[in-house]
Specification:
Shape: globular
Strand content: 15-25%
Order of helices and strands: EHEEEH
Largest sheet: 4 strands, parallel
Helix content: 25-40%
Radius of gyration: 12 Å
CATH topology: Rossmann fold
Number of strands: 4
CATH architecture: 3-Layer(aba) Sandwich
């Protein structure tokens, strides 16, 4: 089981998480495809956490009111990760 996985609301949200997926190698799942626990931590980018609580030990919600806001939250998250590893 992966330590972290990215959950998107639909394929249209993929562009918001593409850099995070490529740089960190976290697997990406569409929300509708998640039927069991796929990772210890779920990074949710689109649609919020409702209904995903039982599929991860920790939930990080980066969902915004639109894809632009979601993308901005993902960038802030990546910057926090970068600072934490430096």
């Amino acid at each position: 089981m992966a330590e972290k996985a990215i959950i998107i609301n639909s394929f249209l949200d993929y562009s918001a998480v593409q850099k995070l997926h490529i740089r960190k190698g976290y697997p990406v799942f569409e929300r509708a495809a998640v039927k069991e626990k796929v990772a210890k931590e779920l990074i949710i980018a689109g649609g919020g956490v409702k209904g995903l609580e039982k599929f991860g030990d920790k939930l990080t919600d980066l969902s915004g009111k639109d894809r632009e806001e979601t993308g901005a939250k993902v960038i802030k998250y990546m910057n926090r990760l970068k600072r934490a590893t430096n």
